[in-house]
Amino acid sequence: MDIRRLVLFVIFSMSILMLWDAWQRQHAPAQIVQQQVASQNADTTPKANLEPSPNANIAVDSDYKLQAGQRISVTTDLYKADIETTGGDLRRLELLKHRAADNDKTNFILLDDAAKPMTYVAQTGLLGADLPTHKSLFSSAATQYQMQEGQDALEVRLSAISNGVAVDKIYTFHRNKYAIDVNYEIKNGSASVIMPTVYYQIVHDSASNQGSKFMPTFTGGSYFTESTKFKKLAFKNMDKEPLKVTANDGWIGLLQHYFVSAWIPKDGLAREFYTEKLNEHIYRIGTKSTLPSIAPGASLVVPARLYSGPQTKHDLSETAPGLEYTVDYGWLTVVAAPLFWVLSKIHSLVNNWGVAIILLTLMIKAAFYPLSAKSYRSMAQMRELAPRLEALKQKFGDDRQKMQMAMMDIYKTEKINPMSGCLPILIQIPVFISLYWMLLGSVELRHAPFFGWIQDLSAVDPYYILPIIMGISMIIQTKLNPKPTDPIQAKVMTWMPVIFSAFFFFFPSGLVLYWVVNNIISIWQQWYVNRSIHAAALLKKSGGKH
Element (H or E) spanning 340, and its range? Predict the structure, then answer.
């Protein structure tokens, strides 16, 4: 295989790897760990308390719908939230620091209980005699809560009482934090011992936020424990293979591009993760735990946290172990995560994500230059040999065997190894793919401006200027490389810039910016090496005389 075929092979392989990785992330089967549930954790409460119960094997409720009550409005520095008195559900969550994907003037709606465009709510409840589930009615002292200037925390207390058992469900919102404390205070004023079970679940439809064909993203369930580590759960598998995992740590959540919601129960509390299909389009993923018994006159506080917001690394890692893995860089996370760390450090200095991408690209190109130079030299040497190789083609015609032998003689005489440029290219491919997924998955680039017409590095270039520059840079690169002697290869190299540019028309401008800068630097490096090799060849022909 000559160097031109090898370069074509590497380029197409890289493209196939990216497409395959994208397909895998979108369509790969869910990874589910099945464990036997301990008998002491079995749900002995009547199924009417939680319809259907997390582990009940009953028919799907095709008429499933959320029950309405009274809305409680909560406004903080980060959220505008709606809490429903029925169940104390968090029914709507508007992120005040993030704009809607399709409108610069409206905020992003993460949770919503509207049938359209989506259903996405966070629920909790208690199982046991006289304890409130997500279908019970709570009361509140007010219907509106506002975090005041200088106030670090805002508490919203909901209350329910039945047969002497008083339960307070308390939401505590914190300034500048997407982690919400959700605690239960249970006071047993009855004459009987209470055997409570607490559950936390997320209800979501299966059809929203699925990304596009060109930029596929994952929307579905997830969970993490120290033993299983991070796992993703496709909606279709929640019905086929319901999740049934027991652990003493971890969380369950719902992923979508750039955002996540996750329930994090109390540390050390034994828990069982579950999934269930509620109707044709609605699913839920949750966790439940058996709590200590509560004697008459005694009380129990049950703490938990709900993270619901953007997938920013710092906020995720600060909230719960393993939550940072929801920023999914694919199978090259080990490379992509350090790259994002470097990118964020550069951003802290320049305060512009576009400039940070450019500087990171420069750093990577500088780090790989010793390897890249070998490839550039090989290409430059092959470029110098192009006229001689063309002459061989004219001499031997269709006798490919003789032509190959003659080419090998030339390589041997000129001390050129056409394969010397392969390894440097192959080594860099994992870095390129890692950068691709890192830039695609970073919420920090969402609505982040660069300059001029680029006001959102996560969106396509509105005027397609960067993709056009990308195509021009690829055309220049093909001119700098040796012209293939094979007509088919020559046509492929001619059309490749057009094809690649067409793909980049649909890519986020942050990704295109990286490739444009990478190509421009590569052009300069290849031109410099070509000139040096050409000067050396001229000197050799002249017998070393200037």
Answer: helix 333-350
The alpha carbon of residue 56 and the mean position of all alpha carbons in its chain are separated, in whole angstroms, by: 32
Burial level of 526, CB count in 10 A (0-12/13-18/19+)?
buried
Q: Of the ranges 22-26, 246-250, 418-422, which is most confident?
A: 246-250
Helix, strand or coil, per DSSP, at residue 396 = helix
Angle at 208 between CA 181 and CA 114, to 5 degrees: 65
Which CATH entry fits the domain spanning 31-35+68-328: 2.70.98.90, 3.30.1490.100, 3.40.50.11190, 3.40.50.150?
2.70.98.90
- Cα separation of 369 and 362, whole Å? 10
Where b means 16+ CB within 10 Å and e means fewer, 99-121 reads beeeeeeeebbbbbbeeeebbbb
* CA gap 466, 207 in Å, rounded: 32
- Mean per-residue pLDDT of the chain: 82
Inter-CA distances, 235 with 307, 372, 510, 517, Å: 21, 44, 30, 39
Measured at the alpha carbon of residue 476, what is the angle toward residues 380 and 10, in degrees to the nearest 5? 65
Amino acid at 239: D
Pairwise CA distance, residues 91 & 65, whole Å: 13
Residue type at position 284: R
* Short-list 337, 342, 372, 343, CA closest to 355: 343
392-407: per-residue pLDDT in tens? 777 777 777 777 787 7
Angle of helix 3-27 relative to helix 422-441, nearest 10 degrees, comes to 30
Residue 434 to residue 403: CA distance in whole angstroms: 40
For the chain, helix (H) and strand (E) counts, in that order, are 10, 20
Per-residue confidence (pLDDT) for residue 479, from 0 to 100: 79
Neighbour-count burial for 232-248, b at 16+ CB within 10 Å, e otherwise:
bbbbebbeeebbbbbbe
- Separation in Å, CA 90 to CA 29, 72, 122, 377, 542: 30, 10, 5, 61, 81
Tokens of 69: 């009550």
pLDDT 10s digits, 60-81? 344 577 888 899 999 999 999 9
Alpha helices (runs of H) in 415-545, residue ranges in sequence order: 422-441, 465-480, 487-504, 509-541
Structure tokens at 249: 């740590």
Q: What is the tens place of the pLDDT at every residue in 373-392?
A: 777 677 777 766 777 777 77
CA separation for the pair 50, 186 (Å, rounded): 19
Residue type, 474: M
Question: Residue 191: exposed, middle, or buried by beta-carbon count in 10 A (0-12, 13-18, 19+)?
Answer: exposed
Give residue 203's identity as a one-letter amino acid code.
V
Token duo for residue 433: 């793919």
Q: What are the structure tokens assigned to 511, written together?
A: 């990704």
Domain ranges of the chain: 3-19+344-541, 31-35+68-328
Of 474, 478, 479, 468, the C-alpha closest to 502 is 468
Phi/psi at 428 (nearest 5 deg)? -80, -20
